[in-house]
Amino acid sequence: MSGVGADGEIERLVRQLNLQQHPEGGFFCELFRGDRQMTFTTKTKHDGPRDVGTCIHYLLKAPNFTSWHQVLSDELFLWHAGGPCKLYLLDNEGNLTHKILGDALKDADHVYQVLVPHDTWYAAELLDDVKYVLFSAVVIPGFEFKDWIQGEREKLLEQFPQHKDVITKLTKK
């Protein structure tokens, strides 16, 4: 955008997309919530039926990060604008991987979408001098805040001491 700095672009996106403060930091707007509910036929930690799916826009702005947490459902992130962000995924066996969500046409190391399987710990941070990232998050079965589990630094360090640096870096305390 010529003549508009990153702060102006962020303000425009917040206004245009009707984004609100997210409890975890950043900004969001729910775009879709399925009008049907599903019940589970296999073992799950959900406490009852859920909407079939949900979708939000989410904008993460520097210097913020998304701290370690889990969601009981599968979550698919789809990149739209801004710079890249690094998504860390940590499974219950202690395997740590990462993906860079960003413009795959500009950088072959970036991907347009990242799937976070249910019950997987994950966190996100902006890369280098990136001012913001805008992506959608599709959650199936649909997202409910009661299905969101905040990672606690001490408990995560006890469970995954081999990942001390990245856990400490991406937890708030």
From TrEMBL:
InterPro entries according to UniProt: Cupin_DUF985, RmlC-like_jellyroll, RmlC_Cupin_sf, YML079W-like
Domain DUF985: from-to ranges: 12-148
Classification via PANTHER family: DUF985 DOMAIN-CONTAINING PROTEIN, RMLC-LIKE JELLY ROLL FOLD PROTEIN
Protein name: DUF985 domain-containing protein
Organism in which the protein naturally occurs: Pinctada imbricata
